[in-house]
Specification:
Layout (H helix, E strand, L loop, with lengths): L1 H7 L3 H53 L4 H15 L4 E6 L5 E5 L3 H13 L3 E7 L7 E10 L5 E7 L1 H51 L14 H50 L5 H30 L7 E4 H18 L3 E5 L6 E4 L1 H18 L5 E7 L3 E8 L30 H11 L2 E8 L3 E8 L1
Parallel strand pairs: 7-9
Antiparallel strand pairs: 1-2, 1-5, 3-4, 4-5, 6-8, 9-10, 10-12, 11-12
Length: 461
């Protein structure tokens, strides 16, 4: 189903390139259209203004001459010669289109201007031959002015060059548009594929992880900040997955090792009973002892998991840690005395208030004290320290200490150093200490000097 849906989807780079191409092309075409309109408007305004100036000047001169054609003929001729006979054309007709005065050497233009006197509006365009014998076509814009005496003055302006320039600009803009669209499409595809390339690498890496290769990582690429962030997050996620699975594998192996011992004992007791060597009472006692150990291990694992993920919410209260530690020391003093260990405390004189669950704190501190007493040889000492602002708990014991290579592993589930595997325990106590401390926003650490002392520290910020 997923492969079918993927087949219907367009590649991301194609969608980006298409969007880039369409957006870029639309922006350029709109801009080019505005440029063309501005050029055409400039030309239109220019020759309309020119026609108006010539028409107004001639009409004024004609009026000052008392509407006498002979008196104004010279001025008409000088006007045409000033602008150029191939540029400006003058025609004076009566109201019926009869020619009164002509200033032009192009009969085709004059004839079409005369035809337009009665049939066209105030301004109009005509196309005529150039009159030079080459048969070239010219474009003329004509403006008509009705004079007070009833005659009609028509002034023509040769706009062939203006229209030719406008067509040239249009051709250049069209060619540029095509070139821009082609280049824009190529650049868009290149940029889109480059942008989408890291995503393709991530998809490939994700498929490798799906197949079970958790060591795969995405190489750093010199892309944008966001892509670098995404690559870093992906690599971090892959690293965490690999780390979690490695820890899970180790946890499973350690758990199997610790479960094998009580199960082997149960099987041995059952075999002895089957052989008639043991009694029913001894069998029942062995079964109860081993199942209690198994149940305690399972319960502690469950409690660690629930604490780490906040699955179980426990009520909290404001506690004074000074009397709390006094109670814990009193509880473990008998055990310490039996082993010949000195148990002491360095506590503040004033109250140290902490909001938490008393039972959870007893588990946390109790596991630290139990470990300290268990690993301290006779004649040694255990010191408990408590400070405020920030709240820091330290449990220090003298003894063989912990090797530097083992310190990073002491808070892992089921982990035990080689020297402690012969002692009672399942390697879950310190994992529970870490889970409880972190559930209250604290951090745990361990320092050790071999053959001298070991210190476990919990800091609550």
């Amino acid at each position: 189903m997923r492969s079918t849906e993927s087949a219907r989807l367009k590649p991301m780079w194609l969608r980006i390139a298409l969007g880039y191409w369409l957006s870029f092309g639309a922006i350029f075409i709109v801009s080019a259209t505005f440029v063309l309109i501005a050029i055409l408007r400039h030309h239109v305004l220019a020759y309309h203004e020119n026609l108006k100036l010539i028409s107004d000047d001639l009409a004024a001169e004609y009026g000052e001459a008392g509407y006498d054609v002979k008196k104004t003929a010279k001025h008409f001729r000088e006007t045409v010669e000033h602008h150029g006979r191939g540029k400006v054309f003058l025609l004076l007709t009566d109201s019926k289109g009869g020619v009164v005065l002509v200033e032009s050497t192009n009969p085709d233009v004059v004839e079409k201007m005369r035809q337009g006197v009665l049939s066209s509006g105030r301004t109009y365009r005509i196309a005529a031959t150039s009159g030079s014998g080459g048969g070239d076509s010219i474009a003329v814009r004509v403006r008509k002015t009705v004079l007070p005496d009833g005659n009609i003055l028509s002034v023509g302006d040769n706009v062939t060059n203006d229209e030719r320039h406008a067509r040239w600009v249009l051709a250049v803009l069209l060619a540029t548009s095509v070139l821009i669209l082609v280049v824009g499409g190529i650049v868009g595809v290149m940029l889109a594929r480059r942008f989408a390339a890291p995503l393709g690498l991530m998809a490939k890496a994700a498929r490798c992880i799906e197949r079970g290769d958790y060591s795969v990582r995405i190489p750093d690429t010199p892309e944008s900040f966001e892509i670098a962030e995404l690559e870093g997050a992906f690599n971090t996620m892959a690293g965490e997955i690999e780390k979690t699975l490695t820890e899970l594998r180790t946890l499973t192996e350690n758990m199997a090792h610790d479960l094998r011992t009580p199960l082997t004992r149960l099987k041995a007791a059952a075999e002895l009973h089957a052989m008639g060597v043991d009694t029913v009472g001894n069998l029942a006692e062995n079964v109860m002892e081993e199942t209690d150990a198994l149940l305690a291990m399972v319960n502690m694992m469950l409690e660690i998991s629930q604490t780490e993920y906040g699955a179980t919410r426990v009520p909290t209260e404001e506690l004074d840690l000074v009397p709390f530690f006094g109670e814990m020391l009193e509880l473990y003093s008998a055990l310490a005395d039996d082993r010949g260990i000195t148990l002491s405390a360095q506590l503040p004189t004033g109250p140290v208030l902490f909001r938490g669950h008393k039972g959870r704190l007893q588990q946390m501190v109790g596991n630290l004290l139990d470990n300290a007493v268990k690993f301290t040889p006779g004649g040694g000492h255990v010191v408990v320290r408590l400070t405020a602002a920030p709240i820091v708990i330290e449990v220090e014991n003298s003894g063989p200490g912990i090797k530097a290579k083992d310190i990073p592993h002491v808070f892992k589930r089921f982990w035990r150093a080689d020297s402690s595997r012969s002692l009672q325990g399942n390697g879950l106590g310190l994992a529970l200490v870490k889970a409880i401390a972190e559930s209250y926003g604290g951090s745990v650490s361990c320092t050790s000097v071999p053959n001298h002392m070991t210190t476990f520290r919990i800091v609550f910020k």
